[in-house]
């Protein structure tokens, strides 16, 4: 997999600052990504250059290329970092919750995480104002997780309704979830719902659409808890692995 991350020695990046202070490559790469994030949200991908990023990060232009061979690879690395952060945040919030995990809790925490991360929300909605041409190559990051696999597992256990097809349930879930992020900027102010009320509203809507008529028993609640935790842990680990793979390249 081409990631574009290279060691400073390979690209001739400075090992010390202009004042002779040793440079921590990881710290510098983080500052560059932070700068790229600010500029991406402020001006969009198509209007942000490597020179802009270097200036915003307070580094030489060559220092950016010491980590990424091209502008596109820099921005892809940024989006991978943000996606990993979102999935780790959802995983950690589910672990800290004072109730068993289920699909409703997963959806609510996922919406909250996306609300707090406008770059990942831009990937979800393929926002070309922010992502520009990059929107075409981020399709594999649109989902907040492998939700289809999770629904398959919940259906196999009989823990959600099965009188609707998997395709119908995926349609309902994604329409409600993605629909909020697509339509929220378009709604008149009189129909604006406070941000902190939205996660519960979306999660409850999904639950009501997918829950089975009979309440889950204690053993079933415990089983769903395990499945949901395993699901988000695997999603977070996969995102972290992609990120670590880039760093090792």
Automatic annotation (TrEMBL):
It comes from Pseudonocardia kunmingensis. The lineage of its organism: Bacteria, Bacillati, Actinomycetota, Actinomycetes, Pseudonocardiales. Residues 26-86 form the HTH tetR-type domain. Transmembrane segments: none annotated. SUPFAM superfamilies: Homeodomain-like (SSF46689). It holds the Pfam family TetR_N. Residues 49-68 bind DNA. Keywords: DNA-binding, Transcription, Transcription regulation. One of its GO terms (molecular function) is DNA binding. This is TetR family transcriptional regulator. Gene3D superfamilies: Tetracycline Repressor, domain 2 (1.10.357.10).
